[in-house]
Amino acid sequence: MDPKVQGILTPFDRLDGFERRIERGPGQRGAGPASAQRQGQEQQREESIQRVGEAVRAARAAKPTAVLMDHSELPRPDRPMR
């Protein structure tokens, strides 16, 4: 195989719509306006996740919870009357 050829070869590599291409991973980001736009999108995403997390914490705090008590702290039942 020619070392200059990059990409993944598939049975469809010669059909229209299935051309070979190289997808960049998250560590291979370019600089420029697209990079600044991605940073803005990432910041919006992080803020959105933070808002959702705060909403979940508030809902969890408002939810009634069970309290485990020691048996000595429980109220004593009344004795049965005859």
Give descriptors for this structure.
82 residues, mainly alpha, 1 helix, 37% helix
Distance from first to last alpha carbon = 97 Å
Fraction of residues in helix? 25-40%
Structural category is mainly alpha
Q: Work out the strand percent.
A: under 5%
- Our Rg estimate from Cα atoms comes to 30 Å
- Strand/helix succession: H
Shape call: elongated
Find the count of extended strands (DSSP E, 2+ residues).
0
* Overall mean pLDDT: 76
Description:
- The structure is a single chain.
- The chain has 82 residues and is mostly helical.
- Helix content is 37%, strand content 0%.
- The chain contains 1 helix and no strands.
- The longest helix has 30 residues, at 33-62.
- The N and C termini lie far apart (97 Å).
- The model has no long low-confidence stretch (mean pLDDT 76).
Q: TL;DR?
A:
With 82 residues, this protein is mainly alpha-helical. The chain has one helix and no strands. It is elongated, with a radius of gyration of 30 Å.
Topology:
Blueprint: H1 33-62
